[in-house]
Amino acid sequence: MPATNQLRLAIGLPLRNEAVLDDLLRQICDPASPNFRHFLTPEQFTEQFGPTAADYQKVIAFAQANGLTVTDTHGNRLLLDVSGSVADIQNAFQLKLRVYQHPTENRKFFSPDAEPSVDVSLPVADISGLNNYSLPHPKIVRRNVSMVAANATPKFGSGPSGTLIGADFRTAYASGTALNGAGQMVGLVQFDGFYSNDIVAYENLAGLSGVPLQTVLLDGYNGVPTTGANSGNVEVSLDIEMAVSMAPGLSKVVVFEAGPNGNPNDVLNAMAASNQVKQLSSSWGWSGGPSTTTDNIFKTMAAQGQSFFNASGDSDAFTTGSGSANGVDNPSLGNAPSSSPYITQVGGTTLATGSGGDYGSETVWNWGGGIGSSGGISSYYSIPSWQANISMAGNGGSASFRNIPDVALTADNCYVAYANGSRETVGGTSCAAPLWAGFMALVNQQAAAGGQPPAGFINPAIYAIAQGGNYTSCFHDITAGDNTWSGSPNNFSAVSGYDLCTGLGTPNGQNLINALAGSVDPLVITPSTGFAASGTFGGPFSASGGNFFLTNSGAASLDWSLTGVPSWLDYSSSGGTLAPGGSATVAFSLDASAANLAVGNYSASVIFSNIASGVVQNRQFTLQVADPLAVFPTNGFASSGIPGGTFNAISKNYSLTNLGSAPLAWAVTGLPSWLNVSPASGTLPAFGSVAVAVSLNSTGVNLPAGVYAANVTFLDLADGVARNVPATLSSGQSLVQNGGFETGDFTGWALAGKSAAGYNFVDGGSKISPFDGDFSAVLGEYHSTATLSQTLATIPKQRYLLTFWLEDTYVPKGGAKQFAASWNGKNVLNHSYASAFGWIKLTFTVTATKTSTVLQFKERNDPWYFGLDDVSVTPVPVPTLQAAVNPNGTFKFTWNALPDVAYQIQYKTNLMQADWINLGETFNARANSLSATNAAVTDPQRFYRVVIPDQTPAE
Description:
Largest sheet: 8 strands, mixed
């Protein structure tokens, strides 16, 4: 890509206190929690969970130091918008931007040749804007003649040619309610503009009074709609028209527009900042797959009480499996964010209305040819807790990963006015998502009228409803149709309850509004929490049960039901009727089957439902079944040394304890040949303990050089539960972690200096070509010194060979250049370089005096950079005589050697002499054995030895 081209990027920063935030989000959605719907303001969220001001400034400084211009900052500090030349971006993020011909579109696209890389200390989560393979695209489908012929659509709407328009949606899905969204706003994600006269024309035709529109322009977009075949103007108009059709009394529709090349995270974060807009919708997809920053913005919305609805897609069923070409998480297909578990995913239906325009029936929207309601299984996100209690046995869903969609609404036969006078019939889940946002405005209008907070992220609530007795009164359960296609001929079909075509179904008017609005329900249940029990396999457990007290605080009788009770809980009643002021007690206790549960953690959300109002209340019950065999410590055995020599760890003791009340038989299995264990088996009495020693044996000491790994398994013979502790043996291997910097960063190393491109970083060749592999360290501290160090586990008195490769190809015209290497604080090298040099190998034989030794490099390079690569510290074996011969009066010695180590032959004629005499110069080994000769010896006797000169500086 031309180096002078300019790009706009959005740098995402990570959240703080994520575990606390995740727990808070759970509490916010839990009716039993005192924090239920106690939402945060944007300021409160930033204070508790946003990046710190110091971290934000650090990223700003990094951008500016690398020639990038800060174009926008964000109040929650989750994003920093920058622009810069391709050259500066490549240098800042250690990559190359290249241009490719698009495989399916008549255009070229740009993309980096590697993942962006920054110093590990820089608080960056991800960077968007580094490729434009898949531009933001609308999830809308125009209907052509062949589609109509093959897949006729019921035309029972009041619009032209029987299309659905205006009040048709309210009549079908919100019949009888006077709610119209008054006092509420809907926010829409858009990457194109709209013509206001199209919206006015639609409202006039539909008999709507008109809703004020506000445009928020982002990423330098001017708001002028694009034209041509790829214009997204039809999507923008459709979204506005669908939202005002469902909620014609909205105080405002806010259109967040970033233009065809806009950055999705900029749009989403602007929506989060506009916290007064409580219902948000997106009918667009974009490339990149799951994004940490996108999910963090969605978490922000959930914490602030905003509901976000996303069109699931229009390509029928997503195929599953690792690397699936049509998988929902495939980063190149532009499906993002259709699998995110932090928002509500919306599928599509085909609606047939009744004679009066009211709800008649629905099927899954599927026009054939791979056009229909998208649904499927994420390969990235695990199944959320609120979806885990839904049975996936009969619908093709997963019990381990996120399933989509969550809900649905009509996605067929929708009338749209767009393009400054055009009119068309369209389909797509892009119709359904803004309709759901409009429906949510009705919910929150009722909540506000009752003095209640908004509903916020509704997924935990709607899945709780699905498990309660009022599911069919709150949702239209879609059981007809499928979203199969040629690439997925068997998945998926609509079934009773949840399915991967339409989720839980479509809204059933006032019943669902009542259930979600959060009004005070007359069914009062205490306590507000469930109970937690724990114990060992077979019992006993710490808690056996508890009572819940139900009271009717209303003026009319109410019916209640209890669902979602797991098999390991017993309960005294599953439902009943409470008179006004009446009460009942439901007793819970652990079932006898709990003692037979396998070791693991069990949880269940038990649901109390007021059948009349549709309001559900959850109580969480947990059971932890632990294995009675406890092993301490849990970390493994690790030893390193040289073949036949000394190792830094010989043995390790483990304590085995029986936490149960019955005797426990145990055994050690999986033991490698290089370890011994004592004892290897036994029986522990109740609450008894035993010490078990794992030790290195002679086989391990004499293994050839290499790294050996195994698991030592402590096995409970009664239930078969195994406790694995790793065991590793490193024989004759380098002690340095990431010595070749092939992780692409300074993993394993500690850098004290400027950690940014332009100073000290790991590079793939933009500044210095690595000596070996794909990466090397590039060290160029300016006007001061920096250090790069690593602490090694060593054996006292053991010799080690320190080697590394060094390079500096720049001839200085001024400025200092100095490089030093030290072993345990003492320099083995300290040199000021005045000339350039290519890669050179430096070797030093050093001795350890402690069980841990610091290897450190200190450097300063004002005019350019040092290259450092392939750093190694290897144990040196003791020289052992392999052969000694004396042909014709010439002695020849052969001994084992380590390449790059210097050896010296010494002799005495009498062992009583004080000093040994050097025989010639030192020998530098180039192989694993070395020989020396001593010719024409006239002494009556000589004693010889091989020594390794020590290059360690004196302490």
